[in-house]
Design goal:
The complex is a heterodimer of chains A (562) and B (117).
Chain A (H helix, E strand, L loop, with lengths): L1 E3 L2 E3 L2 H41 L3 E5 L5 E4 L1 H7 L3 H4 L4 H4 L8 H7 L4 E8 L6 E11 L5 E10 L1 H29 L3 H16 L2 E8 L2 E7 L22 H6 L5 E4 L18 E8 L4 E9 L7 H50 L1 H15 L8 H29 L9 E3 L1 H11 L6 E4 L7 E3 L1 H17 L7 E8 L2 E7 L7 H4 L21 H11 L3 E6 L5 E8 L6
Chain B lengths: L2 E5 L3 H12 L4 E5 L2 H7 L7 E4 L8 H11 L5 E5 L4 H10 L3 E3 L3 H13 L1
Parallel strand pairs in B: 1-2, 1-3, 3-4, 4-5
Helix pairs in contact in B: 2-3, 3-4
The chains are: A alpha+beta (562), B alpha/beta (117).
Amino acid sequence: VRLRDGGLTVDAISRVRLSQALDELSKVQMELDAERVARVEAEAGFDELVWSMSDALLLVDPKGLVTRTNAATCALLGRPAEELEGVSAAVLLPADVPATPWALLERHASGRFATETVVDSPGGARPVSLSGAVIRNRSGRIAGGVFAARDLTETQRLVGELAAANQRWELLGRTSDLLAAAVDPVDALPAIAALLDEATGTAAAFILAEGTVVRDVVTGSGGPLLRRLEELRDRQHSAGSALEAVLDGRSPALVMPDVPPGYPLLGVEVDGIRGAVLASLPAQDERMGALLLVSDRPGLLGAAQIELAEQIAGRVGPALGIAQLRGSLARHAAQAEARRAREDLLSGVSHDMKTPLTVISGFVDLLAAGEAAGMGREEVLAMMRRQTRRLQRLVGQFLDFVRLEADRGLSLQRGVVDLRTLLEDVVSTVDNPDRVRLELPENLPAVESDAQRLDQVFANLLTNALKFSPADSPVVVEASHAGRIVRVGVIDHGPGIDPLEVDRLFEKFTRGTGATSTEGSGLGLYVTKLVVDALDADLRIERRRQGGTRAIVSLPSVKAAA
Amino acid sequence: VTTLLVVDDNADIRAILRLSLRGIGWQVEEAERGAEALERFADGVHDAVVLDQSMPGLTGLEVAERLRADHPELPIVIFSGYLDQHVEEGARVLGVPTIAKPDLAQLLALLRRLTAA
């Protein structure tokens, strides 16, 4: 190709080459175009990627002005992308966050940070996890920055729900533990109510009822809201109230998030209740009452609280039901036991009467046939008198028992009693007077008591001592006095009372283990102890170290005469 | 002379039996407890034994069972206020008649019958 006189001369060869070169050029052009198209497309892909990311993104230039944003950011901030681009990130980010690349580098040498914070959003403040990083180009110069925020509202809701579920489980677990640890589940209710108070921020009460009659109200800390619930006790009927509907089973549970003033919630007006949950306490096939949660603010109680109340009630109700069942079984067993004991007693007393009757009727027959000869009249009379006394004592003891069972108390006739005369008389009326040795001091003071009752007490102790000791061993009656107390001891040389049995001695119908073959209703010591108590005296029974048993009666002596 | 061993922990019961039987010419020996009765009983001396059931130590039935083992023909009577089903059944097995207190007249009649046989 030659350039001449401003003209262009192109030889043929050159023309071909030129044409080839132009072809080449256009190819290169096309490739460049393709590359540009591809790059544009890639950039669009990047845009799309950025736009659709779930985290809210802000890309900024080195000055901190927003160059690019995405849908999540627009949603979080409640503004369209056009409004955000070109705005300073410092305006959009929380004040404590470095909003330009330089500020970020100044605060964080690594050029990146992550924090949890709160951003203003159209729906209110939202918790976010926010991170930021400086962007550099290939040569290492600062090209801008990126901020990414992840909305934690949902996460926090889940965490909250998990925590609430966990708390509920823990509450249920502790409720079960408390119920299991209590002898009577009712004893566990105050603690369970207190747990509910604390966990729900409400005031909880267990309303225990038979049918729709409220028997008791158990609160935890209770507080002023529940103070008036006491009035529910022994209410025959709370007709028309929400409580009644729950107690009679029409409604297993109900929640009133906003209790209108005057609403018949409980049947008594409790000032200040603005929200309530009622859940029945279910047992086998009845309801033991209801669990009540109340709040002094409306809107606090809802689905979560009714669910919790029903779950707690679901544990408390059956426990109460089982305890009630167990109680009534025990009562039935005790009644049956008492009935059996009473029958045993009747048969014991009637058997005990047969010996004196045999003696008395035998002598009557002998006297009638004129055959009592060979025995002194005095001796025969003494025997008949002795057995008559025995009959009288048996009848008296039985009547005392009947009176005591009917809570009518013992009749007493107090007076001055000479112990020596009394004891000598008692000894003469026991079955084997010869085995008894009276060892009384000369100066034994008189006592203030009831002679007939003391006769009963000592006759019983002597009869026991004779019964539970060898036939040839003596029974000693000794006495001493100190101050205003006179002590009379009845000592036998039997096997001695089993220390384990001492505590049971005075129980109704108790008979010593050695007594299986010996007559006795098991009533003697029981009535004796009650008589001694009524006389303001004291009875102690102990095993003697030397063997045998000692019964000691302590009595008040008469005031020393001047 | 017919000799009777009376075993009863109640002295007055023993006395009334002693007096009642003396009227018909019997001799009565007494024991207060079952163990004492087993010691005192002598074959050929005692013609019959009257036992209380409810006594400290051995019961009347227990004494009867031991006496019966060595003396199958000995007349034994249980004379007691404590005759329940258990005692009646035990006595029946041993072939020992029972008389309930206070029926002394019936006891005396039975003793006469048993020793006459």
